[in-house]
């Protein structure tokens, strides 16, 4: 689950198992203690012009990075869902790859808020190209009891108006 440096492999594996994360191609460099650092290599699918990243992959990278940072503070087996995120694009993201660095600002019992800064790297140059705030809903770990309850939900009473 974790290594000597605290890297949360369980979270990285869960995120990278999501089809959209796999298609995006992000890589985790750090993932522990309310922090996450991810990397995204430039590919033509991420671009509107050679060498520049389009806004959507940048925002998606920020979202995955912020939520992943937040999940590191939850008990093992927990999950999260994005409630809201705001990405601000500061300059064109031109480079060979992006690095997103996320940190938790507010770890709440229901909602967690993280800040993410995204940098474009080209050779030795690093350009701060975007910043984002990500709010996530903390979802508790599923226990055998909750899995059973979810598999067999109680019957719902029909409304008398449904028969009309």
Annotate the secondary structure layout.
Layout: H1 9-16, H2 19-24, E1 27-32, E2 35-41, H3 55-71, E3 79-89, E4 97-107, E5 111-122, E6 125-139, H4 144-151
How would you describe this structure in keywords?
164 residues; alpha+beta; Thiol Ester Dehydrase, Chain A; 4 helices; 6 strands; 24% helix; 38% strand
What does this molecule look like?
- The chain has 164 residues and is an alpha+beta fold.
- The protein has 4 helices and 6 strands.
- It has one domain: Roll (Thiol Ester Dehydrase, Chain A).
Multimeric status of the protein: single chain
Spans with pLDDT under 50 lasting ≥5 residues? Answer: none
> What is the count of structural domains?
1
What is CATH's topology name?
Thiol Ester Dehydrase, Chain A
Radius of gyration over all CA atoms, rounded: 19 Å
Describe, in short, the structure shown:
The protein is α+β, with helices and mostly antiparallel strands. Helices cover 24% and strands 38% of the residues.
